Amino acid sequence: MKAFRLRTREAAEELERETLAPGATLSEASVGRAIPEEPDVWRTAFERDRDRILHSKAFRRLKHKTQVFMNPEGDHFVTRMTHTLQVTQIGGSIARALSLNADLADAVCLGHDVGHSPFGHTGEDVLSEFVDGGWRHSDQSVRIFESLEPLNLSWEVLDGIRAHSWRVDIPAATHEGNIVRFADRIAYLAHDALDAIRAGVLDASQFPPDVLTTFGEPGREWIEVMVQSVIDESNRRNEISMEPDVLEAMHTLRDFMFESVYLRPEAEGERRRARQIVRGLVEYFLEHPTEIPETYRHEEADDLTQVIDYVAGMTDRYAISTHDSLFRPKLFE
Fold first, then answer.
1. Is 0.70 topped by the overall pTM?
2. Would you call 245 exposed, middle or buried from its count of C-beta atoms within 10 A (0-12, 13-18, 19+)?
């Protein structure tokens, strides 16, 4: 008896046709890529996209980008990398439960945050000061994969990345893309809460009563409740959604986290330092554009775009060290 059975791309596509839900996005039905390519022998289009994102430099940089705590010293705090992996697990679980295309969901989840600036949303707010209409990390994620580190991804993957943020009004064109909106929020709320408890910022008893009543004690149970709610309500309504009472509790939790963790007064000094670093870097490189590395210089882009491409791509550590090298006195010269 043979130990293995080869699975070609054609076989995988046939399996999708036979097993996925009517609303699923079939790999063979993709709108396609900006530059046409020959199909892979073994992998579907969305499997290739997932793999390309995993091997990208932009994905690797996520390990040194902040989720909540600026350049944290502890080994167990969530970074953009661990957050992204958690989002991918949650999004893939929801997609599989609904018989949607989990490979597409995985690809969108893995790529959704690669455009994040250093220091999280604090850095994003500073970059928005320089851009008419504001600057969004979701748009930057798409720009990375289209222009800065072009991977020639499928249209559906780029569309899901573009639309993953709740700040984006136009939702994704696929159910798989819209799963990421919920997976992202579920992941960051659950794990940021645990980080806040671990850091001594919060005690488990401080969360709003309706949050604890709906989700239980902080931890794995929170994720299970929210994921189950998305599965049940999406199946009932034929669109990606969450049960109203659970959604209300999630919004309550988010408001509480902003007040008690993300924007707490005790962290204002840290946020002010992050703003100074990002603003100082943008202003410096606008005055010295020739110092931007060649890989971030694109003739079709204006100076501001090239500067933001460079600064937004920095990890927290690199932003701090670059700012220090430019602005801190050199004592032994």
1. yes
2. exposed
